[in-house]
Task: structure prediction
Amino acid sequence: MLPTFTPAQWALVAVAGLGIGISKSGLPGISLLHVVIFAQLFPGIASTGVVLPMLVVGDLGAVWLFRRHAQWPHVWRTLPPALLGVVMGWWVMGRLPAAKFGPIIGGIVLALAALQALRDLNAGFLKSIPHSRGFAWSMGFIAGVTTMLANAAGPVMGLYLIAVALPKDAFVGTAAWFFLLINLIKVPFSAQLGLITPDTLTFNVVVVPAIFTGLFLGRALIARIPQKSFDILVLGFAVVAAFRLLGVY
Result:
C-alpha cells in the first residue's frame, strides 16, 4: 500500500524523484536532495531501502542515455573495492545506528573535496595520485561503504571522476555503469535487512515518471554547461553534501 502522505509531502516526493533523475544524468552532488527528502519521509535506515530501487531505475536510464561514453577501466578499477565496501556497510548496518556514520562520511567527502580544490589551484599538486591503484581502491571502498550506509556515494565517485579528469559525457557514462552494477549488488543485502518490501516497491513505481523526467532534464542541462563549470559544480555539490552529513545545517 502507498504511504498516507499529505499533498505537500507528495510534492516533495516528486521533487526528490526529479533529483534522482538529474543526479544520474550528470550532477551526482544533487543526490543530496533526494537523500535528505526521503530521510525525512522514511526515518532511519528505512529510507535506504525505499530509495535503492529508484536509484536502479535512474541508473538504467542513465546507462541508456550515455551508454557509448563509459570509460570501463575506471569502472573495473573501482568496482572490486566498492564491493568490499558494500559488504562492510551491510555488516555495520546490522549492528550500529546509521546516524553515527553521517559525520564520518561527511568528513571524508570534505577532505577529498579540499584535496581536489588544491589540485585545481596547483596542477602539479599530487599530480600522479589520482591515477594510482591505491587511490582507485580507496575511493572505490569509500564509495561502497557510503552507498550502503546512506546512498550517498555520488559525491565520492564524482570527486574521483573529476580527479582523473574525465570529460562530461565520459564522467556520466562511467558513473552510470558503476552505480548500476553496485546498486544491483546492494539489492539482496537491503532485502536481507528487510528494507525492501512489496509496499516500498509499490511506492517506487509511483515515482518512476518523475525520475525519467529528471533524467532528460539533466541531460539537457549538462549539454549546456562548459566543462570547467561542470567540474566546479560537482566539487561544490560535494562540499554541500559533506556539510549536510556533518550536521552543519
Q: What stands out?
A: The longest helix spans residues 198-223. DSSP finds ten helices and no strands in the chain.
